[in-house]
């Protein structure tokens, strides 16, 4: 079982909405659904309203953990990790997503800082969109994500962010990480509006804990609860 989440499979709504009224509506509609394991807050809400206020709103409804995704953290100089981690901890955040594109020293420093604040580092390497890696005319070396994941795993991280719309890629990273970490866990953006589906993404993980991060596929629906329930049912009922 995950140290961060109460289930081994589930859904994390990505709260990438623009106003606090919609944010509250999303939490109220989904917090009590079986299969919802936490909430991901991004930079849009965080920069507009501040993390403490947002965490307090979630806490009005549930004690499910709040994840912060700075979109993208881990891209600064190493010593900024301590300040960043302290701010997240003070706000009541439980898990923090980083994509350490600034290099191995920054990655190590941010992971250490998150551990020091008793936060769960959730480390990503490859993103969901085309044009990220060099082979797609992107800026990131093709083997850089492997290095990012490997460094994280060797530092004891066991929760990784992988692209949910790329099942073959997920399978490759799981093979790598399961050889380093005893029980790797995965959270996956890219499911829903970005073309991924839970069955394909979770199915390559050989039963490893897996969580679908879903944003617009839930919050753009008039009935957010119904949309979230369908994703939860799929995540929980896979064999």
What's the number of extended β-strand segments? 8
Kindly give the count of domains: 1
User: Tally the helices: what do you get?
Assistant: 10
Distance between the termini: 17 Å
Q: Radius of gyration, rounded?
A: 17 Å
Q: Runs with pLDDT <50, length 5+?
A: none
Which outline best applies?
globular
- Structural class by secondary-structure content: alpha/beta
Describe the structure.
The chain has 239 residues and is α/β, with parallel strands linked by helices. Helix content is 42%, strand content 14%. Strands 1-8-7-6-5-4-3-2 form an 8-stranded parallel beta sheet. The longest helix has 13 residues, at 104-116. It is globular, with a radius of gyration of 17 Å. The two termini are 17 Å apart. The mean pLDDT is 96.
Produce the secondary structure layout:
Blueprint: E1 9-13, H1 20-30, E2 39-42, H2 43-49, H3 51-61, E3 66-69, H4 80-91, E4 95-98, H5 104-116, E5 120-124, H6 144-154, E6 159-161, H7 167-178, E7 185-188, H8 198-203, E8 210-214, H9 216-219, H10 224-236
Parallel strand pairs: 1-8, 2-3, 3-4, 4-5, 5-6, 6-7, 7-8
Helix pairs in contact: 1-3, 2-3, 4-5, 5-6
In short:
The chain is α/β, with parallel strands linked by helices and 239 residues long. 42% of the residues lie in helices and 14% in strands.
Using brief descriptors, characterize the structure shown.
eight-stranded parallel beta sheet; 239 residues; alpha/beta
């Amino acid at each position: 079982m995950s140290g961060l989440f109460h289930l081994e499979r589930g859904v994390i709504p990505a709260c990438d909405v623009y106003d606090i009224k919609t944010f509250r509506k999303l939490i109220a509609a989904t917090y009590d659904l079986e299969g919802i394991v936490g909430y991901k807050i991004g930079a849009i809400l965080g920069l507009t309203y501040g993390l403490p206020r947002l965490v307090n709103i979630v806490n009005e409804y549930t004690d499910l953990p709040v994840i912060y995704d700075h979109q993208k953290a881990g891209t600064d100089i190493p010593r900024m990790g301590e300040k960043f981690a302290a701010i997240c901890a003070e706000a009541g955040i439980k898990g923090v997503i980083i994509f350490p594109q600034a290099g191995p020293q920054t990655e190590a420093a941010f992971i250490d800082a998150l551990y020091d604040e008793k936060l769960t580092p959730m480390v990503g390497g490859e993103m969901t969109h085309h044009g990220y890696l060099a082979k797609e005319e992107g800026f990131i070396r093709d083997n850089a994500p492997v290095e990012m994941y490997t460094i994280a795993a060797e530092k004891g991280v066991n929760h990784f962010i992988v692209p949910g719309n790329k099942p073959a890629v997920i399978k490759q990273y799981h093979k790598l990480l399961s050889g380093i970490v005893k029980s790797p866990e995965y959270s996956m953006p890219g499911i829903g509006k970005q073309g991924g589906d839970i069955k394909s993404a979770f199915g390559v993980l050989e039963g490893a804990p897996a969580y679908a991060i879903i944003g617009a596929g839930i919050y753009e629906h008039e009935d957010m609860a119904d949309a979230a329930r369908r994703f939860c049912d799929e995540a929980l009922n896979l064999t």
